[in-house]
Amino acid sequence: MGGVDAPDAVEAAFRAVDRRDFLPRARRSEADADRPLTIGHGQTCSQSSTVAAMLRLLDVRPAAQVLDVGAGSGWTTVLLAHLVGPGGEVLGLERVPDLAAWGGANVARAGLPWARLVRAVPDVLGAPRAGGWTRILVSASPDHLPPALVDQLAPAGRMVIPVAGTMLLVERASDGSLHVSEHGTYRFVPLVEGAADDGAAAGPHDGSGGPPPATS
Fold first, then answer.
1. N or C: which terminal CB in the chain sees fewer CB atoms within 10 Å?
2. Catalytic residue among 46, 73, 139, 208
């Protein structure tokens, strides 16, 4: 993918990864619908156009090290794996135990060994890594930009995260300084930073993933 620009790379990843493989059997006939689809435990697989917009903002390059916070079914984790290629690394995190087990199996079945999805460590937001992550994708919305995730962003890294309904692009310069820009309004479920159980209200996940409904 070295000579492919970001939009074309995202389109190629979407062609390579069938959303049906990351949906419950009862929802697979709806895979082509551009809307959030339920995956159990009160959680959803994000709207396709929203995921594409987030991936383009993230500008994932081959060989990147990517953290996927709220990975849910594993769909975004596998999309990211196609973008980074075998020279990269993708770690998906999910707090709901049953979803983490299912999503982890979905990712393993995709046959891209540089990507994996695991249950998030209770009371830890993200996954601290030596040198940081070059890209961080977050699919649930906190009220404020979480310092714990900002701290895990590598120099020259980018994070895409919906904060209080606004999609933010967080860029860390090589000197460590930050630049934050806004990129539209979206609705996601809340980001839970503490421990989560198997309940429907738990944790970050493959969120509601769409723009808010129009109002008259």
1. C
2. 46
